[in-house]
Amino acid sequence: MSYWDLIAEHQIQEAIRQGHFSRLKNEGKPLSSDDGDLAGEQWMANHILEQNDELPEWLALRKDIAQQRETARRFRDEAVERLEDLPNRLWPTDARLKRLHELYLKHVRRLNLLIDEHNHRCPSIQHELVWMREDAVQRQQDRIRRERAIQYARRSAGEHGR
User: Fold this and answer.
1) Is residue 87 part of a domain?
2) Threshold 0.85, pTM exceeds
3) C-alpha angle 97/71/52, rounded to 5°?
4) Quick one: pLDDT band at residue 22, thresholds 50, 70, 90?
5) Is residue 147 a part of any domain in this protein?
6) Rounded to 5 degrees, what are φ and ψ at 130?
7) Per-residue pLDDT tens for 119-159?
8) How high is the pLDDT of residue 10?
9) Contact at 8 Å (CB) between 83 and 146?
C-alpha cells in the first residue's frame, strides 16, 4: 500500500469513527452494480450520490439550465407571437414587445453564464452544452419582416398587373 493509500485509509477510518458515514440511505446493504462497464472510484462516488438523492454539481447545473432554457423559450415565443400580431410600424413603440425582448435577453445571458459554468465543471467535452442565441427574437423579427415584404410585393404586383 502506498503512502497516499495509507493516508486515505486513515481518513476514511477516522470519518467512520466520527459517524460521517452513518445514517446514509441503504447503510449496511451491499452495493448493486447497475453500471457494469463503469468501475472504480468514479462509479462508487456516483453511486453514493445517487443513493442519497444528490447530484454532482455539473448535473445539478444541467437541471437548472433546462428550467432556465424553458423560461427563455417562453419569453421568446411570446415575443414572436406579439411580432406576428402587430404591424411592423408598431414594433419599435410597443411596450409589451420591448419588455418581452428585454426579459428574453436577461434570461438568455444568465442562462449562458450557467452553461459556461456547467461546461467548465462537466467531466468531458461530450457533456458540454451549447449557448442559447441572444439574437433569436431579432432573427424572427427579420424573418417576419421579409415574409410580409414578399406578401406585399406579390399583392402589389397582382394589383398592377390588371
Assistant:
1) yes
2) no
3) 170
4) confident
5) yes
6) -95, 145
7) 999 888 998 999 999 999 999 999 999 999 999 999 988 77
8) 85
9) no
Q: Which residues contact 119 (CB under 8 A, 6 or more apart)?
A: 128, 129
Which amino acid is it at 88?
N
Range of the domain at 77: 57-160
Cβ neighbourhood burial of 64 (10 Å; 0-12, 13-18, 19+):
middle
In this predicted structure, which of 24-33, 47-56, 58-67 has the lowest mean pLDDT?
Answer: 24-33
- 51 lies in some domain: no
Q: Which three cell numbers stand for residue 81?
A: 407571437
Q: Residue 17 falls within a domain, yes or no?
A: no
With a cut of 80, say whether residue 27 has pLDDT above it. no
Q: How many domains does the chain have?
A: 1
For residue 65 the three cell numbers come to 439550465
CA distances from 115 to 5, 60, 69, 111, 139 (A): 36, 12, 10, 6, 22
